[in-house]
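so my prof wants the structure for this chain in the tokens format not the other one, which i didnt know existed until like an hour ago. anyway here's the sequence
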Amino acid sequence: MDARNAESLLGEAMFVTNLMTLNVAYDLNMYSVVMPVTACDNDGTVARETEPDGAGRVTAIDYENCRISLGPDTDLMLDGDLAFQYDSADPASPFQVDATAFVSDLRENQGGTVYGNRTRLDGTLRMTPDPIAGLPFASVSDAGLTLAFEYLEDDQSLHAREWRLQDFAVPFAVDPMTGGMGIGARGRLSLTGPDQPAGFIDVDTDPLLSTSMAACPDSGDLTVTGAEDSQVRLSVQHADEAVITTNGNARLIDCGDLLDLADPMAALVIAH
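here's what i got, hopefully its the right format
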């Protein structure tokens, strides 16, 4: 890792952190558990299995090109299989999710242009519902999976990425006093897409990147470590100021710089 690619790798880590928080944990829990999809708005299908003891918790879902309308200009297409295993009978119990070719394809029409993001998940992860906010907000841990993402405009793929997550965690916390949120990431992230630099990085967040509902976090540290202990670190001072330190060399950035680094095409803004 050097000055030429360190900040792009930091951006990859931040993008995956937000992607796992929004498109994976939040969306998967919302449409599978909290407001479960039981019928499709097209000729696709959804089949759900639940616990036989009457608790009603979902244990398996099979989506086949199931489109649901989220509003006059927004659709979500779901495809693939999910299996759920719960630690206990407690309604707030942590649970494991096994995803097989699970695809969440979100589209939003803005002024005649259809923007979208498509996420594909293959592997296993563990969800722990947030003790303050509850589902769909959850921390992710023990993730061993392949994660792929595409940003589209009018069905044209403009931004495609793929990663392998190993022993990966995405902690999430709600501050009961302010209503703000804290997110982070820990674990190994391998970059496996054809347009990405080959290799892996280790990610750690301590303390969590926290926000009081502003566009950018107002505190927290994210560290990315590469080969031979090369390192880039993001230290957030407040909502419009952060420091990026690459192998000991620091520079000051503002909120706009940070947003451009983490999501240069605003791909995750769609329908969230």
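also thought this was worth mentioning. The first strand starts at residue 45 and ends at 50.
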